[in-house]
């Protein structure tokens, strides 16, 4: 399968490198010149349970040099989806399936501005990765991935993508309720990301303390009401699930906490901000999420 990875940071490099190692024709596309140059010169160095190895894979900063692939895999930060796809227009045509495994809400809708809706595939993954430096990725955690067509019914091409990922060591299933799956991951992000970023604590603090659990419960319950108004089916034990995720990833610093610490733009607009905007469409009050979003905006602008 010919695959272009748009946004080849930690997760994009993990997926792209793993798929290249399995024999697929992969090109990593990223704006970080040193990262791309290092991969081109000495391969992508991936560290996981099997140790460290260098994986030969093409990389470029210029999407215009990439022919339209079978699959474009989008891993840029969700706030950059539109900009990244606008720059990647040369490799997108009506035959290319485009898969988003990004955080947050609205990515599939953005992608549909560049390819037909029938080509949009969305998904969620529980894999974790850390970019340790130019051309160096650490596979921090493994887990299942679920994908599905966002606007139309699934088909053999989606089955083929899932099969290719699974054969490469990235276990993937096709979901017939991918919008519910995306919302469930958003609810996990709602409960963990802004609270940890603002309190400057690791995920486990939310599970260990009464204060943490109260914030999780308040934020998640608000967002569940929005999801259900949008027609999604949400598990009844979702708060317990979020707390369990926080406990299982207890020593992790959430991506939003990492961004705030580094002075980078966060994905708050696609998580808590998106919940606030969608709540307004349904005349729902979400004061906790509104406050969390405003405080993160202040923190990232400081």
What are the main properties of this structure?
alpha/beta; 12 strands; single chain; 302 residues; N-(1-d-carboxylethyl)-l-norvaline Dehydrogenase, domain 2; 12 helices; Rossmann fold
Between the first and last Cα atoms, what is the distance in angstroms?
44 Å
- Helix and strand pattern: EHEHEEEEHEHEEEEHEHHHHHHH
Estimate percent helicity.
40-55%
Integer count of domains: 2
Fold-level CATH name of the largest domain: Rossmann fold
Strands, count: 12
What does the average pLDDT come to?
96
Question: Mind telling me the C-alpha Rg?
Answer: 19 Å
Give a quick account of the main beta sheet: strands, pairing sense, barrel closure: 8 strands, mixed
CATH class of the largest domain: Alpha Beta
Order of strands, widest sheet: 5-2-1-6-7-8-11-12
Structural class: alpha/beta
Give me the number of helical elements. Answer: 12
Poorly predicted regions: none
CATH 4th-level superfamily of the largest domain: NAD(P)-binding Rossmann-like Domain
* CATH-scheme architecture of the largest domain: 3-Layer(aba) Sandwich
Descriptive overview:
- By secondary structure, the chain is α/β, with parallel strands linked by helices.
- The chain has two domains: 175 residues, Rossmann fold (3-Layer(aba) Sandwich); 122 residues, Orthogonal Bundle (N-(1-d-carboxylethyl)-l-norvaline Dehydrogenase, domain 2).
- The chain contains twelve helices and twelve strands.
- The strands form two sheets. Strands 5-2-1-6-7-8-11-12 form an eight-stranded mixed β-sheet.
- α5 links the parallel β11 and β12.
């Amino acid at each position: 399968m010919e695959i272009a990875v748009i946004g080849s940071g930690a997760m994009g490099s993990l997926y792209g490198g793993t798929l290249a190692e399995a024999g697929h024709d992969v090109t990593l596309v990223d704006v970080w010149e040193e990262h791309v140059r290092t991969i081109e010169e000495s391969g992508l160095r991936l560290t996981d349970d099997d140790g460290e190895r260098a994986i030969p894979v093409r990389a470029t900063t210029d999407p215009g040099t990439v022919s339209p692939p079978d699959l474009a895999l989008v891993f840029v930060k969700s706030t950059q989806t539109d900009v990244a796809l606008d720059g990647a227009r040369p490799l997108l045509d009506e035959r290319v399936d485009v898969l988003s495994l990004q955080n947050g809400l609205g990515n599939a809708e953005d992608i549909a501005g560049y390819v037909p809706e029938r080509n949009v595939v969305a998904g969620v993954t529980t894999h974790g990765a850390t970019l340790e430096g130019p051309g160096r990725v650490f596979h921090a955690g493994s887990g299942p991935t679920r994908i599905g067509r966002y606007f139309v019914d699934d088909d053999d091409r989606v089955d083929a993508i899932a099969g290719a990922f699974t054969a490469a060591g990235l276990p993937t299933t096709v979901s017939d309720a991918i919008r519910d799956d995306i919302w469930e991951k958003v609810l996990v992000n709602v409960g963990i990301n802004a609270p940890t970023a603002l309190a400057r604590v690791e995920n486990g603090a939310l599970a260990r303390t009464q204060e943490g659990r109260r914030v999780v419960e308040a934020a998640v319950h608000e967002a569940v009401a929005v999801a259900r108004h949008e027609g999604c089916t949400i598990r009844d034990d979702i708060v317990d699930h979020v707390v369990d995720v926080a406990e299982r990833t207890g020593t992790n610093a959430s991506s939003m906490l990492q961004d705030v610490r580094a002075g980078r733009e966060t994905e708050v607009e696609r998580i808590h901000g998106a919940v606030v905007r969608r709540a307004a469409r349904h005349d729902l009050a979400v004061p906790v999420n509104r406050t969390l979003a405003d405080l993160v905006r202040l923190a990232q602008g400081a």
